[in-house]
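Bit of a strange request maybe. I'm writing a small parser for structure token strings and I need a real example to test against, not something I typed by hand. Could someone generate the tokens for this chain?
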Amino acid sequence: MNTRVSVAMIVRNEVRDLPDCLDSLRPLGWEVCVVDTGSEDGTEKLARERGCVVGHFPWCDDFSAARNASLDLCRGAWVFVMDADERIDVADVPRLLELPERGPHYWYSFITRNYTDDTFLSDFVACAPDDPNAKGYAGWYPSVKVRLLPNAPENRFVGRVHELIRSHRPEVDAEVLPSGVPIHHYPLGKTPEAIEAKRRLYLELGRQKTEEMPDCAPAWAELAVQHGELGEYARAAAAYQRALRLEPANGLWLRELGGMLLMLGQTREAETALNLAAKLSPDDVVIVRNLGVLHSRGGDWERALACFEQALSIEPEHRCLRLDAAVALEALGRHVEAQGYRERV
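Reply from user aminoacidic:
Good idea to test on real output. This should exercise your parser:
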């Protein structure tokens, strides 16, 4: 096995997802280091049978502590961070193998494609009908994290939840480059009970994080995301408002606050937040689309259509926006034009 790169993973009760993850990693030929935080379903046995280096870490409500334990297992000159419900497409293996050969002065960020059927999520991207990675999902939304970096003791994870890797040596000046390789993430592949339990865990850890760092705006925004995933829109809005009191000019949080307020039916407040966000990010498709949704709920179909068409001018291939425009056109009695949009979905 090539130990040029070590894959670092933390797992717990992942016997269902881990085999496919390991299968996707096999073409890389890299060492896989797995830290088990308390599985009861045979995950550890499976990992050993598949040739992984296996360690244990007692769960202590701290994802960074567990991830750092996984880094301690890694023998490679580089570390690549993965989770059991993530996959690498075989077509991206050659590109991924090239990255560590550029030298030790770079870190690499990856866009994670989080697959979902919720087409109203921010930054939702529809899957092409023939996309083999879709696995039946309507699309995905992106998140970006550093995943590949030199293996050094000063490079450690920080944050109880929504953990990020950082260097503890101030003089380290590594350049972060986009890898160009997507990570395919299937968070909804577990049972509904497991998904709910994970969200509740993240919520509780997020609360603890804000208590420990009450002046950390990103911590409040992270907590807002967790409330939103659980359908607790009023609490999500309150958490975004707390984050924005600390960083008022954050367009992303203004956008998300507008979305939460829209879900709550507080259209006037939602429009204010979205318009403020639009001034900061006029080409943000999510903002423009949400304004269209807001106008459609108020029965102002002309303004709604204008928003959907503006959004389509930014992302012409966005399938959900075409459907939005079709609905608006039908409401306006322009059925032939609406059918034209539907035929291009």
